[in-house]
Amino acid sequence: MSILRNTPTSPLPEFEYTIDVAVIGAGACGLTAALAARDAGADVLVFERDKRPWGSTSMSLGAVCGVGSKEQQRHGIADSAATFVADVMAKTEQRADPRLARLIGERSGGVLDWLNETHQVPLLLDAKWTGLGHSARRLHIPPGRNGEELLALLLNACARAGAEVVTEATVTALYADESNRIVGLRVERPGGVIENIGCGAVVLATCGFGGNEAMIAEHIPEMRHARYFGHEGNRGDGILWGLELGAAAADMTAYQGLGTLADPQQIVVPHPLMIEGGFLVNIEGKRFTHELANISGMCVPVLQQPEGRAWVIFDERRHQACLEHSVEQRQLAEVGAIKRADDWATLEQLCGLPAGSLAAENAAIDAARSADREDHLGRSFKDLAPLQAPFCAVRVTGALFHTQGGLCINERAQVVRADDSPLPNLYAGGGAARSISGPAVTGYLPAVGLSMAITLGAIAGHAAASHRISA
Ligand SMILES: Cc1cc2nc3c(=O)[nH]c(=O)nc-3n(C[C@H](O)[C@H](O)[C@H](O)COP(=O)(O)OP(=O)(O)OC[C@H]3O[C@@H](n4cnc5c(N)ncnc54)[C@H](O)[C@@H]3O)c2cc1C
Questions:
Q1: What is the DSSP-derived secondary structure letter of residue 14?
Q2: CB 432 within 8 Å of CB 247
Q3: Whose CA is closest to atom 50 on ligand 1?
Q4: Which residues surround ligand 1 with Cβ inside 6 Å?
């Protein structure tokens, strides 16, 4: 991955053809950028390293945070950019970039409306997810409630709009002139075939660096031995190109983690199980964390437990309720990840937990609920029905989902240097750009990842179209 320049010994190659906007990466960010660039009249190509576009977008739950959407209005939800910024700043202990948070707060709802109305990508307000740092209901989700469907909807929209996605096309270098303007890309195709393509502007939609072990070791050493449960092809290429061109990067220590990845099945255990009253114990049968305090940050206490493992404990009633809306819960059932018993003693045995441990933790929760007080971990189970037999358990571990640090951008999603001056024609969004999670794992607000991808993708694609060579 490098920046190549015109030198006497190594002149720039002849480009086979030139397009207005080159988008690198076919996840939510890249595909939304392509749609926006097309709408603005540009010719656009999306280059994707995989044979079939997948990305972290397909692995996600597909929930997108959007502020001020028509969907919110239809459901009578009062929300505003100011409320969103306040939520982001509270979640990150005032350490996120407020300018970026405001940009997402002001633009995300309109971008979701545009996707729905112009490109038939419906994202519906979700009634299940509330709280967890969002003071208004603002999570939007595709009808089938998963990221794979979201990506398919975006791919179909690109096909209709004439934004071609070139697969098995790994961009291995950018060609730049002396002013750091990108003039073309080097693309590696199957069999080592190299294609050199000229362009008017580039959108970096290559996501973060979760798949780059060296970068994880450098920036997020606490997760260097943890499982990475994002897309392997996200190796920080866009961030590395930006840095080589003199751009600034920020919050490189931040990431979205998860403490409840089924082990060994590698399926995300739906959080509503815990929101509705489930709890976590370690392999010694002891609770160790407030399960709702921080979804992303929970990976840290889970990984600190013996063997880095824990059990999610819930009941059959909650399992059935979750089955109705969660693909993951169905998958957990199908692969036999859920242990089930008619009493605590049998469940303890099935899970290899000390006798009496689950019964004791459940009794402590019941006692706190009856006394109308928080438990010893500061969690309140008030208004949540006690767990009832049959009881269920899934073994989990902590994992790194995706990184939150990246290239600094301005309001046009244009990549900037440390003094805020923009690089001439380089744009970034999604995981390639700095997010609004501050510098720590605890700052991630649910559904912000896809919001950064879609909102910034739309802004970047539209702005990149202004560099049309055909104009
Ligand atoms: C299990 C899981 C669940 C999640 N759930 C949610 C959720 O519900 N809501 C939410 O907001 N966020 C969620 N996230 C985070 C969310 O998935 C990401 O924030 C989002 O998908 C990022 O989109 P993107 O377009 O930037 O990256 P991606 O979707 O990862 O796309 C990047 C693409 O770039 C390609 N690429 C990289 N380098 C090159 C190169 N050099 N040449 C060509 N192609 C390249 C990759 O192959 C990849 O296809 C979740 C993440 C995970 C892992």
A1: P
A2: no
A3: 60
A4: 24-30, 47-50, 53-57, 59-64, 170-171, 205-207, 229-231, 233-234, 237, 268, 401-402, 430-431, 447-451, 453
Strands in 48-192 per DSSP E = 64-65, 124-125, 139-141, 164-166, 170-176, 182-189
Q: Are residues 239 and 361 in the same domain?
A: no
CA nearest ligand 1 atom 19, residue: 449
Q: What is the pLDDT of residue 6?
A: 84
- Number of separate domains in the chain: 2
Check whether residue 206 and residue 88 sit in a common domain: yes
Sorted by sequence, the CB contacts under 8 Å of residue 234 that are 6+ apart come out as 55, 56, 206, 207, 208, 209, 210, 211, 212, 402, 431
Ligand 1 centroid from CA 57, angstroms: 4
Residue 372's domain spans which residues? 256-400
242 and 261 both lie in a single domain:
no
Distance (Å, whole) CA 301 – CA 234: 26
Ligand 1 mean position, distance from CA 324 (Å): 26
54/131: higher pLDDT: 54
Q: Whose CA is nearest to atom 6 of ligand 1?
A: 60
Residues 140 and 226 in one domain: yes
Q: Read off the pLDDT of residues 420-450 as tens digits, 9 standing for 90 and up.
A: 999 999 999 999 999 999 999 999 999 999 9
The protein residue whose alpha carbon is closest to atom 48 in ligand 1 is: 55
